[in-house]
Design goal:
Number of helices: 10
Shape: globular
Distance between the termini: 38 Å
Order of helices and strands: EHEHEHEEHEEEHHEHHHH
Structural class: alpha/beta
CATH architecture of the largest domain: Alpha-Beta Complex
Helix content: 25-40%
CATH superfamily of the largest domain: Spore Coat Polysaccharide Biosynthesis Protein SpsA, Chain A
Radius of gyration: 20 Å
Strand content: 15-25%
CATH class of the largest domain: Alpha Beta
Length: about 325
């Protein structure tokens, strides 16, 4: 049977978050003419995720199947790769277990692919669902938490702007993935004790480099639940450190080898400039202003990214 669309949900210890998402997927509208499926990719959870999914499967009243698979290798990149392998559709829509889509998300995702055949991937309009109100100046860094509100018209991400959508609410065309994404990526996603991230940007950079278009589709709307713990310094500083330390990889994917030393020097000079300007602007406030501290961590980690990745062996992959 030909499957029109796959919803893939990579999850790690998602027993408390999955039920609300599955309820919303069970209420999707205008999908009567679609043949679609849902796949839960359990990324080595140690909670009751498997039992929660099994309970839903036993009482699943819908014609579209709810499937489960276990990916033992920790990291979001491995979970997404497994989803691509398991999916029966040419279109795979990724939802994190804390992403709650509007009831027309599936049909909006499917229709966009038909209207944009050159789109290798396209992202959702993502609204925040804060558990507590963030600091007043948090908007400066909110996009790093996968909040994507770029208006109500479709937008193509141009390679020159070095901007790509997050993996939350992202739809990937299988052929674009197979044409572009290496079997073994450098960045694999956050794991316990290591916040190195941006594996989604690495994947999308390869797809864009291969000539596929990357789009923003505002009709695919979802809400990203952000708990209070993600607004604390203990979470945010390591989080921004991980983003910065990964940047050498995502910056260099589209750069020709012989130009890389010159581009690296330019990036390092620019990162140094940002650090100095930030210090001049905020001075001692960097210690008390959470947003300014996160920005400084990002700039510093971006500067040392190539040395960190080389020392840790990532660039030998």
């Amino acid at each position: 049977m030909c499957i029109d669309f796959t919803v893939a949900i990579p999850t790690y210890n998602g027993e408390k978050r999955l039920p609300e998402l599955l309820e919303l997927l069970g209420k999707q509208v205008n999908t009567q003419n679609l043949i679609w499926e849902i796949i839960i990719v359990d990324n080595n959870s140690n909670d009751q995720t498997a039992k929660i999914v099994q309970a839903y499967q036993q009482n699943w009243p819908h014609s579209y199947p709810l499937k489960y698979c276990f990916e033992p290798q920790q990291g979001a990149a491995y979970a997404r790769k497994r989803a691509i392998q398991e999916a029966k559709s040419e279109l795979i829509g990724f939802l994190d277990d804390d992403n709650y889509p509007k009831l027309d998300w599936v049909v909006s995702a499917y229709n966009f692919a038909k209207e944009h055949p050159q789109a290798g991937a396209y992202g959702s309009q993502i609204h925040p669902d804060w558990e507590i109100e963030p600091p007043e100046n948090f908007q400066r860094i909110a996009a790093f938490l996968a909040i994507t509100e770029r208006g109500n018209l479709p937008l193509k991400y141009e390679p020159a702007k070095k901007l790509l959508p997050p993996s939350a609410g992202l739809v990937v065309r299988r052929q674009a993935w197979l044409d572009s994404v290496p079997n073994n990526s450098i960045l694999t996603g956050r794991v316990a004790g290591n916040m190195l991230t941006s594996e989604d940007l690495e994947m999308l950079s390869y797809i864009q480099k291969s000539g596929w278009e990357i789009w923003y589709n505002p009709q695919m709307e979802l809400f990203h639940k952000i708990p209070a713990s993600r607004l604390k310094k203990e979470y945010l500083i390591p989080f921004f450190r991980g983003i910065g330390l990964s940047r050498y990889v995502t910056r260099m994917i589209t750069i020709k080898p012989w130009i890389k030393p010159f581009v690296l020097l330019a990036y390092m000079l620019n990162d140094t400039r940002k650090i100095l300007l930030h210090l001049l602007k905020y001075q001692w406030k960097i210690k008390t202003d959470l947003v300014a501290a996160c920005e400084m961590q990002l700039f510093v980690s971006s500067l040392i990214s190539p040395f960190y990745l080389w020392k840790k062996g990532y660039l030998k992959k």
